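Lecture notes, unit on protein representations.

Consider one protein chain, 100 amino acids long.
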Amino acid sequence: MSNPHDAPDGPEPPYLKNLRRLVTLLTATMIIGMAAIFVLMAIRLNSPSTPPLPERITLPDGTTPTAFAQTPQYIAITTPTQVLIYTPDGATLRQTITLD
């Protein structure tokens, strides 16, 4: 009995040639996409993401902070009953919002 794998190779079918091209194109696309993701992550992780924190923020007497948020325009400190809005340097209390 002869082994079918020992038979001489015939001409390649056209659909196999197209399939090989599609697989190669997909592989190249995935490699380029992964490289782009790594480059974007490196750029993002090396850039400063937040404004600098102030040295000290003086809270009103009797308040206990529960949350902190900072943007380039303001600093917000949340207590159980209030939201305190400070200037970006943390020196001046701009607004107090009372929570229900």
